[in-house]
Design brief:
The protein has helices at residues 22-39, 44-60, 62-73, 77-101, 138-150, 163-175, 193-198, 211-224, 246-258, 278-290, 310-325, 357-360, 376-384, 399-408, 441-446; strands at residues 4-6, 13-16, 105-106, 116-123, 126-130, 153-157, 183-185, 202-208, 227-231, 236-240, 268-274, 329-332, 347-350, 367-373, 388-389, 393-395, 415-416, 431-432, 435-436, 449-456. The chain folds into 2 domains: 4-232 and 434-456, Aldehyde Dehydrogenase, Chain A, domain 1 (3-Layer(aba) Sandwich); 236-423, 3-Layer(aba) Sandwich (Aldehyde Dehydrogenase, Chain A, domain 2). By secondary structure, the protein is of the alpha/beta class. The strands form 5 sheets. The protein has a 7-stranded mixed β-sheet with strand order 12-13-14-11-10-16-17, sandwiched between helices. The structure holds NADP nicotinamide-adenine-dinucleotide phosphate.
């Protein structure tokens, strides 16, 4: 894939970028390894100070960065501003809370024959981050903020269609005061990830992206015995029960499916609605989806911008055509508009069955599948039948139903009466084919640390 900025609104290539030559890549890896040696000896207070400075700089440049995001991948400017604000918050969160996450954990010395025993958390060195374009700043930031605070060094291989966001990240951390080589962007194609991951100077990797990319990185990391965190696809269930407020649930469902122009791993994608309220909910949901304004993402009135890439739109169309060809019903949308750019309308389908591809896979665009169920048990059975297990949503006022949902839903995150989202304060991640490991909170920070056990005996 060429490394370039292409407008999703017009399809026009706006800027080309050269890939790193083999010599340039070697130089960057050498610099990262050298930085890791000295950076691990900096104090956590110094590192927190640089993170705070990065937050301030990003806040000052928020409007420019938001426009850059929208230009490169087509999310609405409103959504891009939210993304940048979240990055600022994430940086400040780790600057303030990170030092506490790194405190030594005392053990019971008497029980293990020591005078003192504790666990101390130490950085592991250079970590490779392979990141997707859909939240081009936040995905990379939620790796970078905890990693740098922990004393690790980052090398970022970002998606090929967001090179300006990728290069901005490197500049931000440099200008915030982080030492040379502590955070670098590698403008390389996906096929060169293997070389970087096999390099002995690189100690671990995190990948957010598709299942095939995750499989590839996990296979290589397995051969090299390197730690890897995988944040892969999702097809989150969104269950609506009769006790909920339907208007509120329908508004949330629209946001859940169209967040990020429908291209988020944690979009609600499969909607399970109880039969007693199915007709009423579907009426509200369909009319609200149809009322969304699709258009120029820079326009403040736009709700849904274009898909990020031409191939992304082709994939979405292929899923819908396959389902419709096999008998699914289109209630709203379902047809690309006659205009330049990679637009696809908010779409609602019913009658999706196991013979259709979208039933088992992930549709990365604003296409909702609605299923009518007779009970929460049935909704959970259907929801859990999917290979993914990232987020999940229940709308219910019933405490018994909530308990059952928390206990039985097969997902890394269970949100009740609110849409799945990421916060630096709480862990984020999935189970099953959505990946393994956690990002954010203290758990995310410790993924790439050596929890070193220290045992000290008596002096002679
Ligand atoms: P993608 O094609 O897998 O790309 C993600 C990143 O991986 C890009 O940097 C890409 O580089 C690189 N890559 C692609 N193939 C690779 C390979 N074989 N080996 C190593 N690196 C490879 O995914 P995407 O289309 O950008 O993103 C959409 C997917 O990400 C969806 O499935 C979505 O659910 C998932 N996602 C998951 C989360 C989560 O937290 N669980 C969050 C966001 C997105 P190039 O751009 O150069 O190809």
């Amino acid at each position: 894939m060429a490394i370039q900025t292409t407008s999703p609104v017009t399809g026009e290539v706006l800027k080309n970028f050269d890939e790193l030559t083999p010599e340039q890549l070697e130089e960057k890896l050498a610099r990262a390894a050298a930085a890791a040696e000295s950076y691990r000896l900096t104090t956590v207070e110094e590192r927190a100070g640089w993170l705070s400075r990065a937050a301030d700089l990003l806040e000052e440049e928020a409007e420019t960065v938001s426009r850059m995001i929208t230009t490169e991948m087509g999310k609405t400017l409103r959504a891009a501003r939210d993304e940048v604000a979240k990055c600022v918050h994430g940086l400040r969160f780790y600057a303030a809370q990170g030092p506490g996450f790194l405190r030594d954990l005392p053990g019971d010395a008497g029980r293990v024959g020591a005078t003192k025993t504790f666990v101390t958390y130490q950085p592991i060195g250079v970590v490779l981050a392979v990141m997707p374009w859909n939240l081009p700043m936040w995905q990379a930031m939620r790796f970078a903020a905890p990693a740098l605070l922990a004393g690790n060094v980052g090398v970022l291989k970002h998606a090929s269609n967001v090179p300006q966001c990728a290069l901005y990240m490197e500049r931000l951390f440099r200008e915030a005061g982080f030492p040379d080589g502590v955070f670098q962007t590698l403008l390389i194609s996906a096929r060169r990830v293997e070389q970087v991951l096999r390099d002995e100077r690189v100690k671990a990797a995190t990948l957010t992206g598709s299942e095939p990319a995750g499989q590839s990185v996990a296979t290589i990391a397995g051969e090299e015995i390197k730690k890897v965190v995988l944040e892969l696809g999702g097809s989150d269930p969104f269950i609506v029960m009769p006790s909920t407020d339907l208007e509120r649930a329908a508004d949330a469902a629209v946001r859940a499916r169209t967040l990020n122009n429908g291209q988020s791993c944690i979009n609600g994608k499969r909607f399970y609605v109880h039969q007693d309220i199915a007709e009423a909910f579907l009426g509200l949901f369909a009319s609200k989806m149809e009322a969304l304004v699709v258009g120029d993402p820079m326009d403040e009135r736009t709700d849904v911008g274009p898909l990020a890439t031409e191939s992304g739109r082709e994939d979405v169309e292929a899923y819908v055509d396959d389902a419709v060809g096999k008998g699914a019903t289109v209630l709203v949308g379902g047809k690309r508009p006659e205009r330049p750019g990679w637009f696809y309308p908010p779409t609602v389908l019913t009658g999706v069955t196991p013979g259709m591809k979208m039933y088992h896979e992930e549709v990365f665009g604003p296409v909702a599948q609605v299923f009518v169920v007779s009970s929460l048990e049935e909704a959970l059975r259907e929801a859990n039948g999917h290979p993914y297990g990232l987020g999940s949503n229940l709308w219910s006022e019933d405490p018994v139903e909530r308990e059952m949902f928390i206990r039985d839903v097969q997902s890394g995150m269970a949100f009740i009466n609110g849409n799945t989202t990421s916060y630096p304060e709480i862990p984020f991640g999935g189970v099953k084919r959505s990946g393994y490991g956690r990002e954010l909170s203290d758990l995310g920070m410790r993924e790439f640390m050596n929890a070193k056990t220290v045992w000290i005996g008596e002096d002679v």
